[in-house]
Amino acid sequence: MLKKPLIILLSALTLAACSSDKEEAGKKPVKEENAAPVAKENVENVMKFQSPLTGEEMKEEPTDRSVAVMVNNHPKARPQSGLSKADIVYEVLAEGDVTRFLAIYQSRQPEEIGPVRSARDYYIDLAKGYDSLYIAHGYSPDAKVKLESGEIDHLNGIRYDGTLFERANFRKAPHNSYISFKDILKGAESNDFPMDTPPQSLSFLSKESVSGEEANSIMISYFNNPQFDAVYEYNKDEGKYERYSNGEQTKDYDTEDPVLLENILIAEAPHRVIDSAGRRDIDLQSGGSAYLIQEGKLREVQWKNEDGRILPYENGKQIPLIKGSTWINIIPDSPGLSGSVSYQE
Fold this sequence. Notes:
Helix content is 10%, strand content 34%. The protein is mainly β. Pfam families: DUF3048 (PF11258), DUF3048_C (PF17479).
């Protein structure tokens, strides 16, 4: 059962808000006095397509396959490159109190992504939920078995270090492996991986349909280690959540674009340490309790694994997402293991 979050006043917490560049609004065509009337259906169909993973409007039908990249979240790997352009990010514990990101891209292609980190079996399962091309540098024993069995198309830095994957000179291994989207596509082509199969679309709703308790600031603490505290602050002007790690806003290393989110799902799942290295088995199949945070509001819901995707449910029905980017935190369900989840009204 989901632990009732501790409501705390974060009066001492002062976080700088950054605004992202807004897309230029499309201009309406000028209608000449004697010009023939424009067909209504043609105007309505100008933006009739939408991104399958964000629901945002697109001028052309999306045809690209999704790409899922393992991104390092060690303090020595921050700030990362490419996170601000991800459609969906999973944040899940690896060993100890260290979380890693699985960043899924479909609607946007950042120039560079990284630092790239090694694979774990449960990240592979999450990537398969979107039929993604999976990108990692290294692997655990269980992940290696999955990759070598051909479960998922993948590119790994163990094979392509120094070719598709490059080492940055401003960081030290294992926090310095990067890959460009250009090289991802190059690697896919050389391996005959199809890249023209977009994932099945998620369900989306309008912002006006959101309900729940006021929650403008949410904090997730893993093992009470502040270096991995994840804080989400609601930016009312943007209508989006900003993300912070250890008090620093999550921004792109290259562009300084902030991570801005419309949907945050915090899902409780059984975690079990399985070896002396601290590797984990995480049950991502059974479902459980969760928080869904949107538009400055939070509600307690359930999560289910729907064809490999972790999605929110309420009263047995799937809850559509707000159009935009989504961040999913998987936390241990055992008392005392996950630290705390708290929010400010």
